[in-house]
Amino acid sequence: MPASEGPGRRRDPEVDRRIAQAALEVFADTGWAGFAMETVARRAGVGKASLYLRWSSKETLLTDAVTLRLARVFDADTGTLHGDLVQLAGQVLDIYTGSTGRAASRLTLEAAAIPGVAAHYDAMRASQRHAARAIVRRGIDRGEVAGNVSVTLLLETLVGGAMMHALTTPPAALAADTSGYALRLVDFLLDAVTTQTAH
């Protein structure tokens, strides 16, 4: 919820969503150096006063935009490690290919240097890492992969592969085969992991 919301002020969730989306688009286009309340207001089609009634600074605006609109990783329990990892790979692809994908890419590079946003973004990423690790640990507990598998390396390979695919594949090809790629990536990774631990 915007930090500067006053008591009893009626909210319009659709306006908030539109402003949050505009904020992420402006950040994606210009980075933090070019991020300005006035530019966001123009992109959202609202008066600058509307932003200042809701947010006291551009830091709080961007933080709330990330909370409201940025896609994220969550723990999806399908009952199998394979199914869970396909869901995880799909979530990562969604983060970097959806309507906020360019903003997510820029945040990866710039968040640490943005006052007020860095701590929030770090907490969000930590929560996502926890969810991803829970997926693999369930698979280990169920005996689907060996207990000596490196959880970190498995997840870094999966997430890194999904990110690189999202960032380097032409948009038309990417849109046509996102779910198929997630499945192939997990099949390849689990085959490599089970082959390695079998020796």
TrEMBL record:
Keyword terms of this UniProt record: DNA-binding, Transcription, Transcription regulation
PROSITE patterns xrefs: HTH_TETR_2
Keyword Transcription applies: yes
One Pfam family per UniProt: TetR_N
DNA-binding region: 36-55
Annotated HTH tetR-type domain residues: 13-73
PANTHER family: HTH-TYPE TRANSCRIPTIONAL REGULATOR RUTR, TETR-FAMILY TRANSCRIPTIONAL REGULATOR
Entry protein name: HTH tetR-type domain-containing protein
Source organism of the structure: Winogradskya humida
